[in-house]
Design goal:
This is START domain-containing protein. One of its GO terms (cellular component) is cytoplasm. Keywords: Signal. GO terms for molecular function: lipid binding. The protein is of the alpha+beta class. It has 2 domains: 32 residues; 211 residues, START domain (Alpha-D-Glucose-1,6-Bisphosphate, Chain A, domain 4). Helix content is 30%, strand content 32%. It is built from 5 helices and 10 strands; from the N terminus they run αβββαβββββββααα. Strands 1, 2, 3, 4, 5, 6, 7, 8, 9 and 10 form a 10-stranded mixed beta sheet that branches. 25% of the residues are buried.
């Protein structure tokens, strides 16, 4: 009986090691995949409806990335509360050690400061981001969030290395059934000297990690049950269609 138990334990251990090795090999294959200037699928999580892509662009040191995710049963107000809660980005955004709002220019324009944890052996990075929101209009049923890097907005903070780029674009489109389809594109240049493996690892891992973080945070009561009004109008799919039918949507500026 004891001999059978040891054999069973050994078999389970072998399966575990094989599964881990297979996962590591998958990650290595994805990091080493040959990229072109066309989007190449990197990860397809069918369970969570997340897809990530990568490509190479002329004039850029590192790969660009794209991600799509279908957020199910999410109110637009809940999503806006999350993305404008800049001081809590460390709870879900990619390797954030510190996050804070520097300046609110208007309800749709912000400057924020992030400190990112770098891979082992590299100095941590900081970045100043200029975020602008384009709300839904009579001719645009989606919400657009654009993020551009402003490296000279505040003085450097050694030993942190100031990032050159963390340029992002998020398109949030409500779809039938109270879901929101998200399309995100971006490019990150961490600045300084960074081994290609580290930069590729970040570009490979960050989009998927951020998508998982958003899905997790959107379930929290602090966003779902909040009665705090959002600073601009947002519409679910049905609300948008009804407002459009009645001619009650704002015109594009």
């Amino acid at each position: 009986m004891l001999r059978q138990l040891f054999i069973a334990m050994g078999f389970v251990s072998l399966l575990t090691v094989s599964a881990v090795t297979h996962a590591e090999n998958d990650d290595l294959d994805e990091l080493q995949m040959k990229l072109t200037n066309e989007w190449t699928l990197v990860k397809n999580d069918r369970l969570r409806d997340i897809k990530t892509y990568a490509r190479l662009e002329d004039g850029k040191r590192y790969r660009s990335f794209k991600a799509t995710v279908l957020m199910k049963e999410v109110k637009p107000e809940t999503l806006v509360r999350l993305i404008l809660d800049f001081d809590n980005y460390n709870k879900w955004y990619w390797q954030v050690l510190e996050s804070k709002l520097l300046k609110k220019v208007s309800p749709t324009e912000y400057y924020l400061y992030l400190v990112h944890k770098a891979p082992t052996g590299l100095p941590d990075r900081d970045v100043i981001l200029h975020a602008t929101v384009q709300p839904q209009t009579a001719t645009r049923n989606y919400l657009l969030l654009k993020v551009d890097t402003e490296p000279n907005y505040i003085p450097p903070k050694p030993p942190l290395v100031r990032m050159i780029a963390e340029d992002l674009s998020f398109k949030f489109t409500p779809v039938n059934g109270n879901d929101i389809f998200v399309e995100a594109e971006g490019y990150v240049d961490p600045g300084g000297q960074v081994p290609s493996w580290a930069a590729n690892f970040i570009q490979h891992s960050a989009p998927y990690s951020v998508a998982l973080g958003v899905l997790r945070m959107l379930k929290k009561d602090e966003y779902v049950k909040s009665r705090e009004p959002v600073p601009f109008k947002v519409y679910s799919y049905n609300d948008y269609m009804e407002k459009q039918r009645l001619g009650q949507l704002p015109q594009a500026q």
